Amino acid sequence: MLTTESNIELQIESLLSPQFWQELAPLLHIERPDYHQVPTPLIPKEQHQYLNQLIKVEGYFHGNIGAWHTPLAPIITTIQKLRTLDLPPVFIFLYDEIWQLAYQLSSTISCLLGEQFWMLPDFWAWHINPAHAEAGWKPHRDKGYQSLYPDGSPSSLTAWIPLTPANPLNGCMYILPADRDPVYGTPDDMNWQIDYPSIRALPANPNEFFIWNQAVLHWGSRSSNRATEQPRISCAFEFQRQDIPAWNQPFITPNSFLNFNQRLNLIGKQLLQYQHMYHLTNSLTGLAQKMAAIS
Length: 295
Known about the structure:
Layout: H1 5-10, H2 12-15, H3 18-24, H4 45-57, E1 60-64, H5 73-84, H6 96-103, H7 106-113, E2 117-128, E3 156-162, E4 173-176, E5 200-202, E6 208-213, E7 217-220, E8 232-241, H8 260-273, H9 282-292
Antiparallel strand pairs: 1-6, 2-8, 3-6, 3-8, 4-5, 4-7
Helix pairs in contact: 8-9
């Protein structure tokens, strides 16, 4: 068990080994060669215009995948194990299955960004525990007004996926729709002017997802110990068009194969670049630095 900072320090070498992670989650996979070969539901052409209009006008849309071609139960169990080990849920990205979820949204992303897009090295996973009144990330815009074209269409997107049911009691997402936000899409977009009745809750089930453009204001709410469901567990990915300057690097080619060391490197990068959202202990900071230095 890695329940103390000193234990994390003692186990750092183990944490850099695929054996540790495979033993932690025997039902998940690491570097299975065909892990990205899952069906990608196609978006009917008659829906393309509708989805693009939603992203431009309201800034987001609520989608339904029908059923993921990836078992969610072992992902959820592993994220819960990570919490008991005092390790951030983002370590779930060492496993093939979590990446499969993003690949199954490929046709949806290409409908909005065009066929040529990159996955950004910006991703995360959450375990919001109502028993401790935990909350998601505070109100923010992922990139802001500069991520929009003059016609309001996006150059980059975020896909947020609930792995367990998300509702107002266990900490679902909230959003200020773009057409209800007076500073949306302007250089003044950090000076929020919120009309509170316009705020929209985004409850969702595990067969659903949300995609929003990176200029829209959104946040994860604080959970309540009155919640009767399990913790809100979720993950998110970010994407951008290929014909614009990089928002962040290195790019990840959609449907590409990432080996264990590449995943370690990217997770280390996430821990360091999002430490303004979460305090890292000295041991976790040291671990993240080692991981981010792996080539």
